[in-house]
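hi! just following up on the protien thing from before. the input was this:
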Amino acid sequence: MMTLTFKNVLTATEGQIGVVTLNRPSVLNALSHELMEELVAALEAFDADDNIRVIILTGSERAFAAGADIKEMSDETSVSIMLKDRFATWDKVKNIKKPIIAAVSGFALGGGCELAMTCDIIIASESAQFGQPEINIGVIPGAGGTQRLTRALGKYKAMEMILSGRPMTASEACDRGLVNKVVPVELYLDEARALAREIASKPPLAVRMAKEAVLKTYDVPISEGLQFERKNFYALFSSQDQKEGMKAFLEKRPASFVGR
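and the predicted 3d structure came back as:
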């Protein structure tokens, strides 16, 4: 079980689900460097915990995260911000092996939108807004917004959002494939929990390798992606869960997966 405590994030365990809540309400969960370091520590602890199978990342009803901490960045120079290499922290979020469900309500702007897109599934409340307004303060997205938003929405809608800085409603984000599901504000966390429990009931090794294979499509041509998928498929035939899953199917009974 996790015993870490943090200043800017809250952690909780709910059975096989780890919940990380961004907790800087006075600044709408602005993503300071300290918060990001704590977030990574919390995610990595859940990733290493054999009792946890799925992670939920959330904020408050008012804001998932309204963006980066501009106060931290305003006096940086090209050299100083490059030398600090703070995006290395974001890469660690991407490298979490267990599935991460973003439960988003209210503002998910700038770095908040980029953080949601770093997750694997996004459940949104009806009040959620997604956007990359960096253009309004003289910069562009730097934590993956130009790349992930374009892959999710296509060139033209992503270009409009990034160049105008205008946000997108939860409903439009869902219609365009950025969000998995939109529910009333009072239900968005319950919906994320229900999906997390469903995924947690599946064989953990297969879930991990399926996540790896889906993410691989961003990095390589489809021919290499198909080879990667096939290798992961073959590898799972050495797992106890594959034997148990197929035996349970043939015996018409529920399977009991152990992650081995």
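The first helix runs from residue 33 to 48.
The radius of gyration is 19 Å.
cheers
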